[in-house]
């Protein structure tokens, strides 16, 4: 996928529809979803989705006053991590799981540019369940891009993408089914 000032690759059928359906059902039931809060202007607010964080011991992730200690890898997550590492030629030590319960859940404009991810991180993003639009906005020019993230797809963000672009998953009406997104990351510690 061509994009200025960054790199994006999209694998639409990284997982088969059967694998995607099975993993979605398992993870909806078994991952320890929690309603996290972030601090904005002195107030604690619910983030508009559920989350959980897995990784190697020590791969702690902090943002907006929230410090997340990783849960240990599950077998399915380890298998998937190995498959993604083979495809992307990169290694990961943690994964952030997001559950968008329906179209009212969302993820606002941000870059994954926390200092613990280092300079120009490679982040691999797997989507399962409802298709949602992933929007990008160039920080300097305002250029916009939209990518539909379908069930079983893998989006790889790398190069200077986080430095130059923000991304979000906007709310969308008439979506009543859940979506799980997993972003595999490498935390430097
Ligand atoms: O749900 C997605 O596709 C994106 C998630 C995301 O940007 C994040 O967790 O940092
Ligand atoms: Mn992100």
In brief:
The protein has helices at residues 17-30, 75-88, 161-164, and strands at 7-11, 37-40, 43-46, 50-55, 61-63, 66-68, 94-100, 107-110, 123-129, 132-138, 144-149, 154-158, 165-169, 179-185. The protein is an alpha+beta fold and 189 residues long. Bound molecules: 2-oxoglutaric acid and manganese (II) ion (MN).
> How are the strands ordered across the major sheet?
1-12-9-14-7-4
Bound molecules: 2-oxoglutaric acid, manganese (II) ion
The fraction of residues assigned to DSSP E strands is: 35-45%
CATH-derived architecture: Sandwich
How can the largest sheet be summarized? 6 strands, antiparallel
* Average of the residue pLDDT scores: 95
Structural class: alpha+beta
CATH superfamily: Alpha-ketoglutarate-dependent dioxygenase AlkB-like
Give structural notes.
With 189 residues, the protein is α+β, with helices and mostly antiparallel strands. The protein has a single domain, classed as Sandwich (Jelly Rolls), CATH 2.60.120. It is built from three helices and 14 strands. It has helices at residues 17-30, 75-88, 161-164; strands at residues 7-11, 37-40, 43-46, 50-55, 61-63, 66-68, 94-100, 107-110, 123-129, 132-138, 144-149, 154-158, 165-169, 179-185. The termini are far apart. The mean pLDDT is 95.
What would the keywords be for this entry?
single chain, 189 residues, alpha+beta, Jelly Rolls, 3 helices, 14 strands, 39% strand, binds 2-oxoglutaric acid, binds manganese (II) ion
Secondary structure elements and pairings:
Elements lengths: L6 E5 L5 H14 L6 E4 L2 E4 L3 E6 L5 E3 L2 E3 L6 H14 L5 E7 L6 E4 L12 E7 L2 E7 L5 E6 L4 E5 L2 H4 E5 L9 E7 L4
Antiparallel strand pairs: 1-12, 2-3, 4-7, 5-6, 7-14, 8-13, 9-12, 9-14, 10-11, 10-13
Bound molecules: 2-oxoglutaric acid and manganese (II) ion.
